[in-house]
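In practice, a research group might receive sequence data for several interacting partners and want a quick structural hypothesis before committing to experiments. The following worked case mirrors that situation: the sequences arrive first, and a predicted assembly follows.
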Amino acid sequence: MVQSCFAMEIRVLAKHSLGNTNGPEEVGEKGQVLTSHDTSSLVIDNLYSRARGRNTTIACFYFDFAAQSEQSAASMLGSLLQQLVFGLEDIPEEILEAYEDRKHAMGGQGLQFSDILNMLQITSARKRSFICIDALDECAAEHRVKVLDSLGQLLQQSPGTRIFVTGRPHILPEIRTRLAGRAESISISPKREDIVTYLRSRLAADTAPDAMDSTLEGDILKKIPTDISELYVEATAFQKLP
Amino acid sequence: MVLKRFTPKKTPLFFSPPPQEVLWSTGSIIDPWDILSGKEQKMSQLFSNNYGSNNNYGSFNTTYVNYLVADDRSNILAWLSPLDPRSRHQGIRDRRIESVGEWVLQTREFRSWYAGSEDGESDGAVLFCYGNPGVGKTFVR
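A structural hypothesis for the assembly, expressed as tokens:
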């Protein structure tokens, strides 16, 4: 039956994780069932939909390897600050004063890192605040230390603030160390129903629908999620075959 | 202080519009510098002509004040950060398949993380979801 899948341009390559040597650059985002970015955007949307009419303010930040040079700890905290301030009806007095003092500063906003952190502490304490940080592992290591320490300080001032972070598992020890006792963690590998939903969606978008009938589709949906236990679904799975 | 009186009419679903979108949707018609430099009568007439006789000088004045306040608020937001995280969020959201991964929201960890903000407890204030970053392969269980 898996042979039949070839006819409808679906190929599932099963490899044991240890045997897999392909680099991440060989595959794109398209074939991913569930990525940590998806989880971040899902959580952010969920928080926004729940925030309506509540005393809540939300900020998010997506780290990106490709933008490391412009994503310093200061620029990241500045972006969070801006979004949290946006969620307040009144701009805190401390920020108004800082703006008046520095709006004509040469070469930028004229704020020190400590100023931004201080404003962030003040702002996040004003309302129920949520901060979402995607792909923290893609933040340069020296900035990541500053980011985590700053978040720790923010929580001291504003303990009700909730911080949602995604990233590769290798930064978990760093998070545990820097935010001692405050961090919970979840692994976000896709569940069986995620794979079924994903396959359904891809089958619905299949460009050769004639090759599919309901029996085949049923078999695929039944067989694939079961058989690929502990195996990789490659991003190439849905590329066209010659 | 006049700045503090400004309240946005509605909160957008996601993040702040960048200043250039907020500012002067009618800004080509009303320039605060004209008003400050004594051309307010002319501007008032223009406004009146465009929007009908209901707009007397007084209501124009109010409108003008609100624009100024919105302007300052936008300037402050722009001063705090030039970055726009919306576009990245939008790009990821567009390729997300509906309901995939939503179980995360139902986990004990997520629910207690979310609820904890009401208690003001900093224990469990941080929730770290680790997994595949989006380039590379998805490990399936």
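Before designing any experiment, note the following. Residues 29 and 47 of chain B are 8 Å apart (CA to CA). Helices of chain B lie at 19-22, 32-51, 57-80, 86-95, 108-119.
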